[in-house]
Specification:
21% of the residues lie in helices and 29% in strands. By secondary structure, it is an alpha+beta fold. The chain has three domains: 53 residues, Structural Genomics Hypothetical 15.5 Kd Protein In mrcA-pckA Intergenic Region, Chain A (Roll); 79 residues, Pseudouridine synthase I, catalytic domain, N-terminal subdomain (Alpha-Beta Plaits, 2-Layer Sandwich), CATH 3.30.70; 79 residues, Alpha-Beta Plaits (2-Layer Sandwich), CATH 3.30.70. Strands 7, 8, 9, 10, 13, 14, 15, 16 and 17 form a nine-stranded mixed beta sheet that branches. A four-stranded antiparallel beta sheet has the order 3-2-5-6. Strands 1-4 form a two-stranded antiparallel sheet. Strand 5 and strand 6 form a beta hairpin. Helix 1 packs across helix 2. The longest helix has 10 residues. The protein is elongated and about 65 Å long. The chain starts with a strand and ends with a helix.
Length: 238
Amino acid sequence: MEQRIQKILAQMGIASRRKAEELIIDGRVTVNGKRAIVGMKADPERDHIKLDGKLLTRVEPKIYLMFNKPAGVVTSLSDPEGRPTIKDFLKGVKYRVFPVGRLDYDSEGLLLITNDGDFAYSILHPSKKMPKTYVVKVKGIIGDDAIMKLRRGVKLKDGMTAPAKVRRIRASESNSWIEVTIYEGRKRQVRRMLEEVGYPVIKLRRIAIGSLKMGDLKPGEIKHLTNEEIKKLKELAP
């Protein structure tokens, strides 16, 4: 059955649909010897689809992992600066996988890793409004005005953010801990939102994505999602 090339690549676990489109645009994908274009359709059972000259034929089992990313690790499979990457923690994983979205180098916490491009798309696409929850330590004692601004939405350079859920956890003499849930996935969004309302982030940890909670998974640990966990996430973003 014919499908769009980017969807075929996603189903094969090559990359998310968005990344697959980039591979096509970069001229790295061919169909029956001809350079593919975004939106082109092909039949994975009949057509010869190649990436960087390598024939793509093997359909690997779907892998769904959760990883507690430590701070100081790049959310990538390689890094030109030679910094630690998530690939360093995937040595026991037999199949090619990729991160679902990203966590900043200085941030830590829950990160999904998979080879299911459609699953990644459902988690990441803004239309799905998948909630992501963070525990954040900020400089200063955060006031009611700042919390209300975060709840209503904050104006950033790339536009107004969607309303966030925010609650105080605790405070010391000079710092505050809050829980923030957002429904978007802009670059460094939580950090930028808090900077905008006057409370720079000291530490940021993601503790949940949708129904999936990090629980007692230790920094650097990785585990397979259960069938029930996968099912619940897919139900949240059909």
